[in-house]
């Protein structure tokens, strides 16, 4: 089925195949910081859950050149609140609830993360005093390509299961990160489908030895793997737009597994 809508700024075409949906945006993909601002609440919760699971150390700036290191503890879905640790300094714990410009910053696997807090108040969680605040409306999730990508070895059978026209087509995983991945493709008809701007839904990513899960992603770029052979294998760069917290942690473990294997060889 093909449905087309038009706005003053852009035109998009949505195509649905069995098991896979993709949307084509007929404008260039721009690589700017605003592209890395996450506003989807489901994705924000996924990212926060990853920070909780990884026990990430977060620098919390509370204004007036005051900051301390905290960790996220839990997400309370009943109150739509984010819980995090107190400061070891009591005067900062008194100061934080009154601040209007609390800023959380951290780096995880080369990903720069930043979000703001408001309406912060003390509460209790499992018998301990903690801070609570509304889940942020947006967050910066900025990946530096040279830091976060890791190449998937040829010995791994990791691949994407792409469903098109009643067929499931496996595409080999070339490299991967928490927020994205790239694929290798030799098929010219598939290259026309896997073009920049297309959003795919209801596809599955399989990681060798760690399982698979449903994902959604947008194609960011398509370039020849070998510039001297532009008509051969293409590298398809993708950014994840929807992924479960459990599978996000699975990607983290997969990257760490590859890093350990590489270190053992050196």
SSE arrangement:
Layout: E1 2-6, E2 11-17, E3 20-25, E4 37-38, H1 41-53, E5 58-63, E6 66-70, E7 72-76, E8 81-84, H2 90-95, E9 102-108, E10 111-117, E11 121-125, E12 128-134, E13 139-143, H3 145-148, E14 150-151, E15 159-164, E16 167-176, E17 180-185, H4 188-193, E18 199-207, E19 211-224, E20 234-242, H5 245-265
Antiparallel strand pairs: 1-2, 2-3, 3-18, 4-13, 5-6, 5-9, 7-8, 8-12, 9-10, 10-13, 11-12, 14-16, 15-16, 15-18, 16-17, 17-20, 18-19, 19-20
Helix pairs in contact: 1-5
Description:
- With 266 residues, the protein is an alpha+beta fold.
- The chain folds into two domains: 2-33 and 146-265, Thrombin, subunit H, CATH 2.40.10; 40-137, Roll (Pnp Oxidase, Chain A), CATH 2.30.110.10.
- Helices cover 19% and strands 48% of the residues.
- It has five helices and 20 strands.
- The chain has helices at 41-53, 90-95, 145-148, 188-193, 245-265; strands at 2-6, 11-17, 20-25, 37-38, 58-63, 66-70, 72-76, 81-84, 102-108, 111-117, 121-125, 128-134, 139-143, 150-151, 159-164, 167-176, 180-185, 199-207, 211-224, 234-242.
- The strands form three sheets. The protein has a six-stranded antiparallel β-barrel.
- Helix 1 (41-53) crosses helix 5 (245-265).
- The chain is elongated and about 65 Å long.
- The N and C termini lie far apart (52 Å).
């Amino acid at each position: 089925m093909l449905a087309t809508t038009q706005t003053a700024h852009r035109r998009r075409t949505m195509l649905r195949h069995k098991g896979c949906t993709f949307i084509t945006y007929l404008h260039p993909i721009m690589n700017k910081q605003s592209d890395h601002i996450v506003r989807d609440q489901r994705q924000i919760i996924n990212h926060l859950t990853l920070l909780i699971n990884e026990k990430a150390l977060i620098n919390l700036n509370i204004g007036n050149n005051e900051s301390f290191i905290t960790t996220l503890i839990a997400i309370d879905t009943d109150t739509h609140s984010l819980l995090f640790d107190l400061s070891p300094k009591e005067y900062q714990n008194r100061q934080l609830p009154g601040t209007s410009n609390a800023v959380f910053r951290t780096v995880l696997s080369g990903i720069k993360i930043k979000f703001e807090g408001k309406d912060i108040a003390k509460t209790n969680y499992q018998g301990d005093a903690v801070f609570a605040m509304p889940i942020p409306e947006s967050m910066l999730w900025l990946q530096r390509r040279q830091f976060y990508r890791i190449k998937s070895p040829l010995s791994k059978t990791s691949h994407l299961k792409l469903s098109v026209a009643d067929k499931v087509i496996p595409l080999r995983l070339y490299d991967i990160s928490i927020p994205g991945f790239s694929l290798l493709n030799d098929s010219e008809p598939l290259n026309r489908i896997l073009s920049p701007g297309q959003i795919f839904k209801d596809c599955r990513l399989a990681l060798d030895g760690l399982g698979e899960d449903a994902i959604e992603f947008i194609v960011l770029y398509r370039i020849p793997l070998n510039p001297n052979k532009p008509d051969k294998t293409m590298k398809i760069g993708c950014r994840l737009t929807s992924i479960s917290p459990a599978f996000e942690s699975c990607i983290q473990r997969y990257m760490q597994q590859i890093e350990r294997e590489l270190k053992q060889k050196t």
